[in-house]
Amino acid sequence: MKDTSKYIGNPTKVIYRSLWERRFMVYCDTTESILNWSSETIIVPYISPVDNKLHKYYVDFIIKYLGKNGEEITTLIEIKPKKQCKAPPNRKRITRSYLKEMKTWEINKAKWKTANEFAQERGWNFKILTENDILLGKNKK
Predict the structure, then answer these.
(1) Four-residue CA torsion sign, 126, 132, 135, 141
(2) Where are the domains of the chain?
(3) What is the pTM of this model?
(4) What's the CATH architecture for 4-135?
């Protein structure tokens, strides 16, 4: 990390769980318009459709940046593989793998719906970025 002053929290304990998240962190660190950011510091409670119980969703990132008109914008960012951002295609044969994909999809939908509402209540945005956004440099706010 080049600019530890932009990181909210302890810059020696930055959390990332994929190389795509790591790449996004470098983007946050090196982009002048990003005022500050942190990883996995925002916790959004949600009800899982799988067990109907309350769970904690640790959103990957929160960033605050200057918009085109100089306004400060706060956005929650989730980094996910593209294949997890849509329902799995229907299959003739129901396998354990397919059931796991469906479970992941339903949980992700619940998390993202709740995170979007959480963000809107605070005047923030919520965005999901995939490997396409990260690898093609489309991770512009």
Answers:
(1) negative
(2) 4-135
(3) 0.90
(4) 3-Layer(aba) Sandwich (3.40)
